[in-house]
């Protein structure tokens, strides 16, 4: 009996203590946790050294969860559908921007930007554009990474006197040296690709495998020639002389690429370029950064940088490249959107911190990053790359379609290009068929 009484008394005491503790703690604020869902890449790792300083300043806790691209998207989707608010911040690829907006999974940032003093003018315009969607000026992601393709070429070949003489004899004009101050035309580019295609070497190379890279290959050429996939009224606009000319150009360019290009994964062309087997390639910024690095490239010191070619008949001043990179979005069900934006603005909105982040493997969204002496000191082999990067982001980078049906559009275009490149259909027939398929998709969406 006494044992039972002691047990009952002990239980009562525990309950009273627990209740007292609970009541006493009700007025105390819970610790704010900000959870980021990011890609498993170095750019994400480079954020981690800064977290402790932010936590000490604010009392918040910041957690980073990293996944491969498809795994991250799957995880995000599960949490979005559940409305869990598990992630406060997610990586926002332009490839699924429209899908996340249409499903109300992320929140527009314009109001938070105004409330927390976001300095929009400090960022590259392209870094803002990559996360704009819908109504003009609506921003859905914080600038995180701005990227695009530039032309990389073998300076040793282009400057060789024997090569220059041979080129002039064959084409009747001086071999052009591409650059910001000497943008080459699509006609000159085709001549260069043909000229440097010979035993053991190809004039050009770019991966074209699958939906992603098949589309990334043909889309910029269509833009460069003045074509578009659809207009502002969401009507297909493919069936035009400009688009047909672009596809015909790409078909001819295929003659000066290795036969396996249609099956290349991304980066395969860079390996051949570094080995001296290709005269010209296009590459994202990380390739430009590495191309003259003696620790990574066999042709270090011999690589030049230039904007992509332009087409004189297009009415455009510059050629077009795909705006790449991405932003970071605040999820619709974030429990702490204000604190979350505070972290983003603290981490990426501060000039000095943005510079240090880039120097430790982060992204660049401010033009002064590529102009900073510390950056040139760390990457002395890439000093000629940085001004071309800024030029390309300002003048050639163009946002890809971001509609919720964007991937279906890309499937149509990649299939069209694959059939043309393999000789199964003509550029004219391929464009007409793709136009019809696109119009059907867009009509259903409208």
Overview in brief:
It contains 20 helices and 11 strands. The chain has 446 residues and is an alpha/beta fold.
Computed structural class = alpha/beta
Spans of at least 5 consecutive residues with low confidence: 1-27
- What is the rounded Rg? 26 Å
State the name of the first-level CATH class of the largest domain: Alpha Beta
Sketch the major β-sheet.
5 strands, mixed
User: Strands of the biggest beta sheet: in what spatial order?
Assistant: 2-1-3-10-4
By DSSP (H or I, 4+ residues per run), the number of helices equals 20
**Straight-line distance between termini:** 79 Å
- How large is the share of residues in beta strands? 5-15%
How many domains is the backbone divided into?
Answer: 2
Shape: globular
CATH architecture descriptor of the largest domain = 3-Layer(aba) Sandwich
* Total strands: 11
CATH topology of the largest domain: D-Maltodextrin-Binding Protein, domain 2
CATH homologous superfamily label of the largest domain? Periplasmic binding protein-like II
The percentage helix is 40-55%
pLDDT averaged residue by residue = 90
Please supply descriptive tags for the structure shown above.
D-Maltodextrin-Binding Protein, domain 2, alpha/beta, 446 residues, 5-stranded mixed sheet
Written account of the structure:
- There is one protein chain.
- This protein has 446 residues and is α/β, with parallel strands linked by helices.
- The protein has two domains: 33-147 and 324-398, Periplasmic binding protein-like II (D-Maltodextrin-Binding Protein, domain 2); 150-322 and 405-445, Periplasmic binding protein-like II (D-Maltodextrin-Binding Protein, domain 2).
- It is 47% helix and 12% strand.
- The protein has helices at residues 2-25, 42-45, 48-58, 69-82, 97-102, 110-115, 125-129, 155-158, 161-171, 186-195, 210-224, 241-253, 268-274, 285-290, 337-348, 351-359, 373-378, 385-395, 406-421, 427-445; strands at residues 33-39, 61-67, 89-92, 142-147, 150-154, 202-205, 278-283, 303-306, 321-322, 324-330, 397-398.
- Strands 2-1-3-10-4 form a five-stranded mixed sheet. Strands 6-7-5-8 form a four-stranded mixed sheet.
- Helix 11 crosses helix 19 (406-421).
- The radius of gyration is 26 Å and the shape is globular.
């Amino acid at each position: 009996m006494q044992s039972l009484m002691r047990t009952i008394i002990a239980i009562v005491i525990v309950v009273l203590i627990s209740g007292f503790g609970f009541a006493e703690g009700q007025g105390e604020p819970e610790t704010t946790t900000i959870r980021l869902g990011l890609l498993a890449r170095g750019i994400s790792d480079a954020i981690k050294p800064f977290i402790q300083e932010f936590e000490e300043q604010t009392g918040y806790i910041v957690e980073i969860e990293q996944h491969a691209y498809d795994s991250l998207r799957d995880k995000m989707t599960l949490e979005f559908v559940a409305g869990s608010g598990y992630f406060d911040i997610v990586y926002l690829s332009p490839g699924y921007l429209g899908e996340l907006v249409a499903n109300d999974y992320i929140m527009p940032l314009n109001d938070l930007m105004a409330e927390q003093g976001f300095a929009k003018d400090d960022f590259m315009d392209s870094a803002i554009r990559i996360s704009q969607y819908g109504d003009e000026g609506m921003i859905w992601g914080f600038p995180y990474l701005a990227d695009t393709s530039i032309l990389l070429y073998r300076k040793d070949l282009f400057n060789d006197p024997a090569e220059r003489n041979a080129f002039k004899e064959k084409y009747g004009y001086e071999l052009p040296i591409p650059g910001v101050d000497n943008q080459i035309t699509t006609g000159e580019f085709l001549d260069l690709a043909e000229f440097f295609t010979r035993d053991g070497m190809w004039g050009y190379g770019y991966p074209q495998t699958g939906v992603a890279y098949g589309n990334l290959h043909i889309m910029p050429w269509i833009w460069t020639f003045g074509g578009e996939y659809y207009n502002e009224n969401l009507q297909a606009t493919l069936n035009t002389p400009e688009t047909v000319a672009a596809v015909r150009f790409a078909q001819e360019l295929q003659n000066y690429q290795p036969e396996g290009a249609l099956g290349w994964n991304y980066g395969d062309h860079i390996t051949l370029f570094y080995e001296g087997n290709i005269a010209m390639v296009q590459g994202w910024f990380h390739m430009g950064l590495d191309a003259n690095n003696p620790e990574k490239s066999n042709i270090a010191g011999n690589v030049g940088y230039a904007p992509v070619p332009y087409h004189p008949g297009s009415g455009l001043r510059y050629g077009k490249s795909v705006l790449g990179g991405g932003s970071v979005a605040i999820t619709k069900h974030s429990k702490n959107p204000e604190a979350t934006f505070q972290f983003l603005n603290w981490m990426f909105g501060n000039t000095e911190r943005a510079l240090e982040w880039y120097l430790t493997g982060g992204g660049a969204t401010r033009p002064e990053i590529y102009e900073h002496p510390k950056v040139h000191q760390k990457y002395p082999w890439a000093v000629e790359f940085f001004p071309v990067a800024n030029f390309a982001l300002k003048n050639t980078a163009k946002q890809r379609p971001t509609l919720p049906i964007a991937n279906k559009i890309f499937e149509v275009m990649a299939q069209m290009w694959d059939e043309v490149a393999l000789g199964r259909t003509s550029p004219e027939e391929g464009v007409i068929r793709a136009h019809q398929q696109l119009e059907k998709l867009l009509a259903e969406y409208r």
